[in-house]
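U., I forgot to send this yesterday:
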Amino acid sequence: MGIILALIIFSFIVFFHELGHFALAKANGIDVDEFSIGMGPVLLSKEYHGTRYCLKLLPIGGSCMMGEDQEATDAPGNFNNKSVWARISVIAAGPVFNFILAFIFAVILIAMIGYDRPVVGGVNEDYPAAEAGLRAGDEIVRMGDKKINIFREIQSYNQFHQGEDVDVTYVRDGESRTVTLTPRYNEDADYYLLGIVGGNNEKANLASALKYGIYEVKYWISTTISSLRMLITGRIGIDQLSGPVGIVDVVGETYQESVDYGVRTVVINMMNIAILLSANLGVMNLLPLPALDGGRLLFLFVEAVRRKRIPPEKEGYFHFVGFVLLMLLMVVVMYNDIRRIFF
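Result:
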């Protein structure tokens, strides 16, 4: 069941990403040769109004083929005949649609279970928060240079700044106060702790669901960026990356842990995973790397500045090399997932 749920979630997220490219291409009058979900051999295909719609065997990707790697022709719907800003909007639409999808899921989820305001539910004795005078009911609004909107941002800040002193600004009875906390090492947890305990979720109305839906997406985007920063700086290794196999395993485990509590719990946990994956895919695709949307955007912004397109063959070589390296990375990540799960 975990595999089926993972395929459904991932395929829908990819579909929505490609739908972004497709919708903006059509809005800009660009011909779309093929719109496909999946990679590899074609399982189903149908042509409609000049576009071939395909479902392919491997549900690990998709494409919206618009002839962006070709030379400009006289055809009015040719991708490269359009203005550079029209093309930028089409390429950027995929990641933007991922953020929109994450927001939609977040609003639905918050409407179901409520939202976690950054209000202190309690403090652990003999830890920095208690020693600094924080108490239940205090609302934390800033940690260091980061504005805090939901309670999990307190936890993630501590996670990404282990052992570092932090200035914490909180509000009590309408008055803003700031204290400096020095995390304390807990040997049992092998972790530096602040000693701040969260409260319960608050029920959401439409306005708060929309507001905290934005905060939820912001949280996952920020978490993804912070994780990438740790990867680049060597604080986490490539062996800790997870790919499709790892995602299937996480979905399967989550399903098994949730199914005994009923369908509602399964839906909530699957939606949480979908929000994470959609926001993550949006961020990853905006990275200025070959074969990704961010790599294409890089070339388009260069074109916008120099007012001249980089020769398609040179851009094609760039993306081809990037695609090969990306496939190699996927093999490494898949090996790590298999080793972690089965050995």
